[in-house]
Amino acid sequence: MSIVVRDVREHELDSVLALNNAAGPTILPLDAARLRHLYENAEYFRVAERDGSLAGFLIGFGSHANHDSSNFRWFRERYPEFFYIDRIVVASRRRGGGVGRAFYADAQSYAELRYPEMACEVFLDGASDPVLLFHGSFGFREVGQHVMEEAGVRAAMLMKPLCSYRWVRDTYGDALPLEPWITQPRGPIAARRLTGTCP
After folding, report:
1. Is residue 32 included in any domain, yes or no?
2. Between the CA of residue 104 and those of 48, 88, 97, 108, 112, what are the distances in Å?
3. In this structure, is residue 15 part of a structural domain?
4. Is 8 a domain residue?
5. Cβ distance 20 to 34 under 8 Å?
6. Residue 158 falls within a domain, yes or no?
7. Which CA distances in Å does 7 have to 90, 102, 134?
8. What CATH number did the domain enclosing 28 receive?
9. How many other C-beta atoms lie within 10 A of the C-beta of residue 41?
10. Mind listing the pLDDT tens digit of every residue in the chain (199 residues)?
């Protein structure tokens, strides 16, 4: 039973919203308007399918995005270039089955050609140890803590260096090869940029 990671489709936003709001205290709740805003502005917005059903989603932004998250701003005040994972949600029945790792591998394959680091946060509460362990095993390290002004939640701020980025920049500059695995959009904004319809 394989995991397929692909771009979200607009008609799936209701299902994404339900997944997000069923995720529990490790993810901030969303309403439909906020999810629509993320859909229209995220650089990376992908879902995972397993056995034909939605198993989760991941939303990401580049460091130059106009994103209003206080955690994103915390990173931008300290780091010039990074790819920020705004949220990752895996359906409860799919946790521990490799969906999270599939998302992070896909997001890293996108980010390491474009950014020197990946950033994310983990809410610090009594149940955060497994999530911190997961991120630590994937190469993330804590670089500080931040209390989110919009939610009053303390988060561990995590960064991961992307070792391939420097070699890619030194070798190709901004002229990446036109290979499908490189040029394939990873969300609505990326798709519009490739087709020339992004404002």
Report:
1. yes
2. 11, 9, 13, 6, 12
3. yes
4. yes
5. no
6. no
7. 15, 14, 24
8. 3.40.630.30
9. 17
10. 688 899 999 999 999 999 999 987 778 889 999 999 999 999 999 999 988 889 999 999 999 998 989 999 999 999 999 999 999 998 866 565 678 899 999 999 999 999 999 999 998 876 678 888 989 999 999 999 999 887 788 999 999 999 999 999 999 988 888 887 787 656 655 554 444 444 3
Range of the domain at 53: 3-118+175-195
> Which two tokens mark 131?
């999530």
Burial class (CB in 10 A: 0-12, 13-18, 19+), 133: exposed
Structure-block tokens of residue 164: 């391939």
Is-contact 72 25, C-beta < 8 A?
no
How many structural domains does the chain have? 1
